[in-house]
Amino acid sequence: MYQSDKLHEECGVFGVFLDDPQKDATPLVYYGLFSLQHRGQESAGIAVAKDFTIECRRGMGLVGEVFSPDILSQLQGPAAVGHVRYSTSGTSCIENAQPFVSRSKLGPIAVVHNGTLTNAPVIRELLEDAGIGFSSSSDSEVIINLITKNYKKGLEKSLTDTIQSIKGSYALVVLTGDALIGARDPNGIRPLCLGKLDGAWILASESCAIDAVNGEFVRDIEPGEMVIINHDHVLSFTFSEKTPRALCAFEYVYFARPDSVIDSIDVYEARVRMGDILSRESSVEADLVIGVPDSGIPAAIGYGRAADIPFGLGIVKSKYVGRTFIFPNQELREKAVSVKHNVIKSEVKGKRVVIIDDSIVRGTTSRRLVSILRKAGACEVHFRVCSPPVRFPCYFGIDTPHRRELISNMNSVSELCASLGADTLAFISVDGLLEALTGKRGGNGFCLGCFVGEYPLHVLGEDKTALETSVTYNCVAHPDVSNYITKLKSIPG
């Protein structure tokens, strides 16, 4: 299998709660997952609640491969959650596919989760010591087992106990027999938003998924906030102390779809600004600006506008080659980028070309892109990157290689430029990236760990399976949940 030269997000979550118990939420979740397919392409699953029971179907592959019309017809109910997965924690297998469902005499519950828990091994060990078994290596099963263990205390208290015990990043959606619950980690590392549609409430990783089902975006779930949706009301409370916001900056650089808005920042506009700032920080005389599809294109548009250089298509990406594309031998593996990307020769021949990409990880894709541009007749190739150099691993839900595989960690910019075969190479600065996101240099509110090596939460070493081994298990209930629950303001009842 081709080892991808991009960073990958772990997964996407989507949930729907309908007021009318006779209506079916499954089609909405199905289409919502399609719009989140970019966040995970290894497995997909849907769990549906009806008459205080939960039915679940999940499988390996894309949404359209997992769910046939026949399977969808077996899943009907007024509330449902769905998940698409790319594995960063746990292996890629059906046992780790989500949703996870627990059925007990206290009632059924289903959980979908985006992110990584840094203290999952500690909690897993303590639950196993208490006699609770696990069927997967997923952090999400840790969450559902912890909820189930405390479920006799009541839904709100068991959820609060669980959330105050877990550490790391999470956008969490929980389905019970009669409620839909969403929660976002105290730093807001992973995104989660709220929408509505004709008597339905929606929770989704990105606003584009709400748009896909013709819903209306209401607002982002705030860091450290839990939302409880049932037939009587929509309730919200804050379950943590005020913590500095640290949304993953790579959501804007690469992960999110350009038609999403996350924490009031338009993703497309942010990428255009990245290109504008790249031009200001590292201008070069050229005849053409092109972007590496898909996320590099908005930045290329911004660069071209700022530098007064024509923007052209330049590179075409095959829409049918993804992470699951299998290369049967070494020769084809080496030519992987030629399969995935091709140059429009008439556009680049004889021109000085600026090529914009979102990031450089291992360098294999970038090196091949420079090569095929030169082969197509480009007389100069200037490589520009709309993220700072990726020098450190991520512990919060991004699949990053070991530091020794991160080419920017092992080489200076000039050494990397020579390795890629480009005429010049430049990355956007950290301040430039923050300016693109916030409108000011030196802003904050984002996790920049993979660029600068400073993280919003304490991590130990680079072995993800050994993180937080010294953490003491703490499961303290929220001090009187009833005092913290308030009706969501700005949302009709």
Total tally of structural domains: 2
Tell me which oligomeric state these chains represent. single chain
Briefly note the structural class of the backbone. Answer: alpha+beta
Straight-line N-to-C gap? 50 Å
Number of strands: 26
In order across it, which strands form the biggest sheet? 4-3-5-2-11-10-12
Radius of gyration: 23 Å
Task: Using the coordinates above, name the CATH class of the largest domain.
Answer: Alpha Beta
CATH superfamily of the largest domain: Aminohydrolase, N-terminal nucleophile (Ntn) domain
Shape: elongated
Tell me the fraction of residues in β-strands, as a range. 15-25%
Number of helices: 18
CATH fold assignment of the largest domain = Glutamine Phosphoribosylpyrophosphate, subunit 1, domain 1
Overall mean pLDDT:
86
Low-confidence stretches: 323-330, 461-490
Helical amount: 25-40%
CATH-level-2 architecture of the largest domain: 4-Layer Sandwich
**Main β-sheet description:** 7 strands, antiparallel
Quick structural overview:
This protein is an alpha+beta fold and 493 residues long.
Description:
- It is a single chain.
- α5 crosses α6, α9 crosses α10 and α9 packs antiparallel against α17.
- With 493 residues, the protein is of the alpha+beta class.
- The longest helix has 15 residues.
- It has 18 helices and 26 strands.
- Helix content is 29%, strand content 24%.
- The protein folds into two domains: 256 residues, Aminohydrolase, N-terminal nucleophile (Ntn) domain (Glutamine Phosphoribosylpyrophosphate, subunit 1, domain 1, 4-Layer Sandwich); 192 residues, Rossmann fold, CATH 3.40.50.2020.
